[in-house]
Amino acid sequence: QVQLVESGGGLVQAGTSLQLSCTTSGLTFSNYTTGWFRQALGKKREFVAAISWLGGVAVYGDSVKGRFTISRDNNRNILYLEMHTLQPEDTAVYYCAARMSSRQKYDYWGQGTQVTVSS
Asked: Where residue 54 falls among pLDDT bands split at 50, 70, 90?
């Protein structure tokens, strides 16, 4: 059974930093491209970042480029998202997801963790 479990969300002030983690199990983590998405209340899900299966390539959504960093630990099967200079518009539920590197569609999703940034 594949599980992705996010952690690290919370309530923070604007301008501060937060790190999210996504602990995975039930899949060969190093075979999967992994990513972060977010969904704010009343809005569509937004791509945040993705990282290739060996960690050599990372891509970011325009709204987080330069502030967020995605990384992964293939030995511990954990995906990370470092978020800096957080702004109220970063408030959302953050989800991690995984897809086979040969596929475009994300097959597995976590349950999400809430990040709230106060001004």
From this structure: confident
